[in-house]
Every structure is written in C-alpha cells, then in structure tokens.
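Why should sequence recovery work at all? Because a backbone constrains its sequence more than one might expect. Tight turns favour small or flexible residues, buried strands favour hydrophobic ones, and helices have their own preferences. The token representation captures these environments compactly. In the example below, the structure is given first.
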C-alpha cells in the first residue's frame, strides 16, 4: 500500500516538474514578444544603443538589489569568469546589436519570424556540443511549428519583403541566441538564475558603455524627457531583460538547449497578437490557423519527452 502511494506521488511530482519549466518557457516568450513592441515605442525618442544601455543598467540594479536581499547572489569562480564574459558577449551584446539595429530596417513581425528560426538551427549545436539527440517527433514538431509561424507572419498571398540589411542583422541575433544557449548550459548547473542574469547584464552593460558614450550620449542628454519612451525602456528592463532571462535560464536547465529553444516559435505568434491588440493590425483566419499549428507542433515535441520520462512501474 505504501509502495503504491509513493509510486503515484512520484508520478505526480514528475508531472509537476515537467509543467514548471514549460510554464517558465512560455512566460519568457511572452515577455520577449512584448519587447518587439516596447523597442519600437522607445525608438520614438532614443537610439538603439541608448535603449539597450539603459535597459541593462536598470535590470542590473533591480536584479542585484533583489538577489542581495534574498541572499541569492553567488560569487563568480575565477575559472568561470571567461565563460561569463563569453555569455555576455553573445547575449546581451551581440544579440542586442543584431536585433535592435535590425529593427531600424524591418518590422517587428519580420524580426520575430527570423528569431523563430532559432529552433531550426539550435539542435545542430546541441547535438555537436552536448550530444542532445533530436528524434523524429522532435523534428516533426519543429517543422509543423515553423509552418504555423509562416502562416502568422506572411501575407495572405504569401508575399514577403524586407530590407536585406535588416534581415542580416536579425540573423546575427539568431546566431548569438544559439551560441548564448549553448554557453548558458555550462553555467546553469553551477549558478542560480539570478546570479547568472545579474552578472551577464552587468558585463553586457560594460561592453555597451563605450559605444553609448561615443555615438549616442550627446543625443540622449539633449533629448527632452519622453515619458512614453522611458516607460517602454522600464518595461524592457523589468520583463524582457530580467524576468524573461530568469525564466529562460530555468527552462534551459530543466529542459535542455534544444527543447527550450523550441518555444521561440511562439514569439512571432504572440507578437502578431500584440500587434492586433495594441496597434489594431488585422488578425485574419490565416493567422488564427497559424497560431493553432504552432501550438500543435510544440505539443507534439513536448509530449514525446514527457511520455519517455514518466516513471516506469517496477516489475
């Protein structure tokens, strides 16, 4: 009787452990989807380097205060310092350079669909560096999900046009995001999420500082206070540069690089929904169908792992 009780309790705990990383991944994708809208609002008054630098500084202050108050801020081991520097170089530095400057030339929706290609390339890196195998159901789920993404972001006649420079910059962000995920895996088992994101954003802010001082500091000081733009930077700092990374770090630790990056296909879907709500963009049946297909693809990929990891009954 006791064995049966502990067995079913273990099954319940296993399912609970599966749900939390998935919920964390969804939360991160929602916050990052909002960032495409907030960045456009911030650009009404400030340049890309100003927006990035301010959001990182605010994020570091919030994270450091919170982590110190809860005694969650760990010290970096000297042997891990270069890994932290590499992590910060890929993201926020290189990723934000690509994404933020790319948004000057392409729309939020186009940028979102390019970001959605990350799951197509991430399994290659995960297989090469960590031997994470991608099964048939994984690849099927990724393919189905990406088809849904295309339905969401393409026009009814399936036309697609964008600035080559903007597309190239957004693909730079894609490369940086994949490299970031692979580097993050090395630290996620030795440091908690708050410590990783605090140091990552601190080092990233230091990397951006000279660029901000040289190219945009004078414009920033001469620009009148713009409440809407500053509010958008505050939202970017709290949710996109802080909470999203904390949630994604937890997801990578629990699900792995490949499975966590699958959820990035949700970003253009959420972005399309936000554009409909905030900007009154059209929301056709094609987009609705695309959203359903994206969720179906993610369900197929996730369900295969949950099924394979359920506790087996003893003989």
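From this structural description, the recovered sequence reads:
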């Amino acid at each position: 009787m006791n064995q049966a009780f502990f067995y079913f309790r273990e099954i319940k705990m296993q399912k609970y452990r599966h749900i939390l990383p998935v919920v964390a991944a969804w939360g991160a994708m929602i916050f990052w989807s909002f960032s495409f809208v907030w960045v456009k609002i911030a650009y009404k008054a400030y340049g890309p380097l100003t927006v990035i630098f301010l959001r990182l500084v605010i994020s570091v202050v919030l994270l450091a205060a919170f982590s110190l108050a809860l005694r969650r801020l760990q010290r970096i081991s000297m042997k891990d310092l270069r890994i932290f520097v590499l992590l910060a170089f890929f993201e926020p530095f290189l990723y934000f350079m690509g994404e933020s400057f790319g948004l000057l030339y392409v729309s939020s929706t186009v940028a979102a669909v390019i970001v959605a290609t990350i799951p197509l390339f991430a399994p290659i890196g995960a297989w090469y560096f960590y031997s994470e195998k991608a099964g048939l159901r994984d690849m099927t789920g990724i393919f189905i999900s990406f088809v849904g993404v295309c339905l969401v972001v393409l026009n009814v006649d399936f036309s697609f046009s964008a600035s080559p420079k903007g597309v190239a910059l957004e693909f730079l962000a894609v490369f940086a995001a994949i490299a970031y995920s692979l580097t993050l895996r090395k630290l996620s088992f030795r440091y908690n999420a708050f410590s990783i994101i605090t140091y990552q954003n601190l080092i990233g802010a230091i990397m951006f500082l000279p660029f901000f001082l040289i190219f945009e500091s004078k414009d920033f000081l001469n620009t009148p206070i713009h409440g809407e733009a500053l509010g958008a930077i505050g939202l970017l700092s709290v949710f996109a540069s802080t909470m999203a990374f904390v949630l994604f770090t937890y997801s990578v630790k629990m699900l792995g690089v490949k499975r966590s990056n699958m959820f990035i296909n949700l970003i253009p879907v959420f972005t399309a929904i936000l554009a409909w709500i905030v900007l009154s963009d059209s929301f056709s049946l094609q987009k609705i169908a695309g959203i359903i297909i994206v969720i179906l693809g993610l369900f197929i990929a996730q369900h295969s792992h949950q099924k394979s990891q359920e506790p087996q009954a003893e003989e």
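A few observations help interpret the result. The chain is about 80% helix and 0% strand.
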